[in-house]
Write a structure and sequence with these properties.
The structure is a homodimer of 202-residue chains. Chain A is mainly alpha-helical and 202 residues long. Chain A has two domains: 5-77, Arc Repressor Mutant, subunit A; 81-200, Tetracycline Repressor, domain 2, CATH 1.10.357. Chain A has helices at residues 5-10, 16-43, 46-52, 57-63, 67-78, 82-92, 94-105, 109-121, 130-153, 163-183, 189-200. In chain A, helix 2 (16-43) crosses helix 5 and helix 2 packs across helix 8. Chain A is elongated and about 55 Å long. Chains A, B: Residues 22-82 form the HTH tetR-type domain. Chains A, B: Residues 45-64 bind DNA. Chains A, B: One of its GO terms (molecular function) is DNA-binding transcription factor activity.
């Protein structure tokens, strides 16, 4: 999986063919995020993606030979903020870290829509990214479980909270509130998540 | 929208062309549920659906002129159990009614997958069933809010619970736990939902 797209772009001194390739790849990944987010993975074609950025299909296929390679790059790109979340959760607690991500996500409905569609499609074991999504949820739950246990140690969360259960319920309510917000953007997603966390970690 | 498919089939004495039409429609709706559940709405074609039950495309189009008609029929069919839920919630409380539905849903992963995919896709305002899904979530939340208020009146739920907030959080955690279960069927979905309801209505 291509995990270097974002960091390559972040290095401003890079020039020449490498920088150009990285820029082109990122353009394709952004276009794919958009197309998959509106038409789903099965419904969006490499042709749609190449058209959106005025590239030839051959050029897209040169960077991403199969549609599933492109999906992998889109998903990796979407999960880039994981390290930042970790630091924040350790320093200020799970609740504060989650609410920061929720507020940050208000600016990227297309990406949330894509993740919602593709994670639902990927629940089918036949789906190309099935394993990736199963692993993603396992990792998310395990990480959150550790962070909640840490919060209990620090006295930020009462000790009658079961970290494993709470982790799964928090991920669930988070996914569900995102969906409700995507359907009706007038919903106060951070406010609702705040109350959910008080109940689930209270 | 075709809302008579299920009830027509439930009347065993029906014979002749009407019964045949109803049976054929239900076959098509079942096949469409399956195809949309595995390939999404955009990814599944009328041709895939007709192939699955060995019908001609013309025959499918005769019953459902547009793919969006078929999606409407599938969604109506999926929401058939609403009245039953209502009665149960009034008699035994929201928690008991929800856990009954969650247990019942263990037998129909394909339908849950379809609803998860299509509700995510439908969050895009351009999507054919967008209005239907926005309305569905509004109705669900309003109904649950009334049921929780009733539970508070009956002393089944403490009066510091905000029915409007709790309704949205319950729907969210429910959607999210279904997704986690679809990805990993070893998850104890009813057990997790039980704990979520204790926290959100406790």
């Amino acid at each position: 999986m291509a995990s270097d797209t974002g960091t390559d772009l972040a290095a401003p001194a890079r020039r020449g063919p490498y920088a150009k390739t990285a820029k082109r790849r990122q353009e394709i990944v952004d276009a794919a995020t958009n197309v998959f987010a509106t038409r789903g993975y099965h419904g969006g074609s490499l042709r749609d993606i190449s058209r959106q950025i005025g590239l030839s299909l051959t050029s897209v296929v040169h960077h991403f030979p199969a549609k599933s390679d492109l999906l992998a790059a889109v998903l990796e790109n979407a999960d880039h903020s994981a390290d930042w979340f970790l630091d924040r959760a350790r320093a200020h607690g799970v609740k504060s870290a989650i609410l920061d991500v929720v507020r940050h996500n208000l600016d990227r409905p297309e990406l949330l829509r894509l993740l919602a569609i593709v994670s639902s499609e990927a629940s089918d074991p036949e789906y190309p990214a099935h394993g990736w999504f199963v692993k993603r949820y396992e990792n998310l739950a395990a990480e959150l479980e550790r962070d909640i246990a840490h919060d209990i140690q620090q006295g930020r969360v009462p000790s009658d909270v079961d970290p494993e259960q709470a982790a799964h319920l928090i991920i669930a309510v988070w996914d569900g509130l995102q969906l409700q917000w995507l359907l009706d953007p007038a919903q106060d997603m951070p406010g609702r998540m705040d109350r959910a966390l008080d109940r689930l970690l209270g």
